[in-house]
Amino acid sequence: MKSLIFDYIELCKPRVVLLMIVTSIVGMCLAPSASFPIVPLIVGNLGIALVASAAAALNHVADQHIDKLMKRTEHRPIAQGRISVKQSLCFASILAIAGMLILIIFINPLTAVLTFASLIGYAGCYTLYLKHATPQNIVIGGLAGAIPPLLGWTAVTNTLSPEGLLLVLIIYVWTPPHFWALAIARLEDYAKANIPMLPNTHGVAYTKLNILLYTILLACASSLPYATHMSGMIYFVGVSCANMVFIYYALKLYFRTDQAIAMRTFYYSIHYLGIVFLLLLIDHYI
Q1: Taking CA 71 as the corner, what is the angle to CA 67 and CA 73, rounded to the nearest 5 degrees?
Q2: Distance CA 30, CA 47 (A)
Q3: Distance in angstroms (rounded) separating the CA atoms of residues 263 and 253
Q4: Under 8 Å CB-to-CB from 95, ≥6 apart: which residues?
Q5: Residue 277 sits in which domain range?
Q6: Do 252 and 131 have their domain in common?
Q7: Where among 129, 144, 159 does a domain terminate?
Q8: What average pLDDT does this structure show over 257-276?
Q9: Helical pair 233-255 and 162-185, crossing angle rounded to 10 deg
Q10: How far is Cα 286 from Cα 282, in angstroms, rounded to an integer?
Q11: What pLDDT is recorded for position 130?
């Protein structure tokens, strides 16, 4: 029973969902509000997390065949037959319905619509089509994964605003170097699964150049909160240091041939995103 519970938790991709909720929390805290947004922080993030978990479970269902071929994913519950497709679909449906009801009833319809759109974008457009159709799958499909801070913003304000969209832009530009670094490290896995990731279709050298260029673009995008007076000097100094480290990793990856640096770049990219949004939060309250 305990192992089955952990299998269902794994279906939800808890680490990915946690990172999404962190960015959503920052969006809520940065959004203009007459009082501290306690209801959106608790109830809104619960709804967002449930829908995001549903999208993750649907991703497991859609990718079950390729998961069996890749070392990184071969032990997933559906790939190993520990949870059936029918059970997974029922589980995902319950999570999605519960999350949408929470957002509609306790938050606002705009946040509910945007959250549902992100579910369709990730589980439908990206997983079922883009992932297998083009090496630009991450670039085009990255918008669905970049939307959580905007969901946090709209949960508080019930409006779309440039500031909320700016937070989306940072994650959107961060996504390609993050995933392409992993694609280089897992080159054989993606080739075996016949997924057209950029290193497999255009070569590792070309991918490394794109990672470097996107990392430089990310440094520009992540500086915009300071340039637009959305944040102050604490954020600017901190994010500048984080950007220099990311560019250092991207340069190191570009000039070196061993794949170990690709995995280190991937891991740093995860820490980088957390650092950026933590700095936004610290700067806002200090």
Answers
A1: 35
A2: 19
A3: 10
A4: 12, 50, 51, 53, 54, 57
A5: 161-286
A6: no
A7: 159
A8: 93
A9: 20
A10: 6
A11: 85
| 219, 92 contact by CB (below 8 A) | no
Question: Does residue 2 register a pLDDT over 70?
Answer: no
Q: Six-digit token pair at 22?
A: 């962190």
pLDDT for position 73: 81
**Under DSSP, is residue 257 helix (H, G, I), strand (E, B) or coil?**
coil
Model-level pTM greater than 0.85? yes
Q: How far does CA 99 lie from the centroid of its chain?
A: 18
- Tokens for 193, please give them: 């699964």
Structural contact between residues 164 and 149, judged by C-beta atoms closer than 8 angstroms: yes
- 214 is written with which tokens? 């996107």
Q: Is the pLDDT of residue 265 over 90?
A: yes
pLDDT in tens, 202-223: 999 999 999 999 999 999 999 9
pLDDT digits (tens, 9 = 90+) for 243-261: 999 999 999 999 998 788 9
Asked whether residue 245 falls in the same domain as residue 113, the answer is no
Residue 56: CATH number of its domain: 1.10.357.140
Cα dihedral sign, 247-253-256-262 = positive
Residue whose tokens read 């260029």: 213
Supply 188's token pair. 């054989």
Tokens of 257: 């041939």
